[in-house]
Amino acid sequence: MSPEMSPELPPGNPPCRLSFDGRTIHARPGQSVGAALVAAGVVAWRTTRGEGRPRGLFCGIGVCYDCLITVDGHPDQRACLVPAADGMRLESGHAGGDADARER
After folding, report:
1. 3-state secondary structure the chain
2. What's the number of domains the chain is made of?
3. Does 45 map to a domain?
4. What is the mean pLDDT of the chain?
5. Domain range for residue 80?
6. Domain of life here (predicted)?
7. How do residues 59-102 score in pLDDT, each as one tens digit?
8. Whole-prediction pTM
9. pLDDT, position 96
10. Is residue 24 part of a domain?
């Protein structure tokens, strides 16, 4: 979502700029990484190891682990629980990578 499309933003609270696999994503102050990605049209950012099925935000409350993402070099972060911050670097997951946090 571009900052211009956010009429609800209070004055003085500029949007955060995040980098997702090299693409700039905007987030509202207080918004989670997962919500910012979905608002930007990104609905899947990792795939399952077995069949390569897309995964993204599912439960939105940190229970299902479908939204795991790498945040500033730290893998296996739940995007639905991580608050967006200006300058944050987000990286998608890849099929066949290391085990998810839930499988350890």
Report:
1. CCHHHCCCCCCCCCCEEEEECCEEEEECCCCEHHHHHHHCCCCCCEECCCCCCEECCCCCCCCCCCCEEEECCEEEEECCCCECCCCCEEECCCCCCCCCHHHC
2. 1
3. yes
4. 85
5. 16-93
6. Bacteria
7. 999 999 999 999 999 999 999 999 999 999 999 985 444 444 44
8. 0.79
9. 40
10. yes
Residue 78: phi and psi, rounded to 5, are -80, 110
The C-alpha atoms of residue 16 and residue 30 are separated, in whole angstroms, by 10
What does the pLDDT read at residue 70? Answer: 97
Q: Is residue 47 part of a domain?
A: yes
Residue 70 within a domain: yes
What pLDDT score does 11 carry?
Answer: 61
Identify the CA nearest to 36 among candidates 77, 94, 85, 92: 85
From CA 91, how far away is CA 9, in angstroms rounded? 26
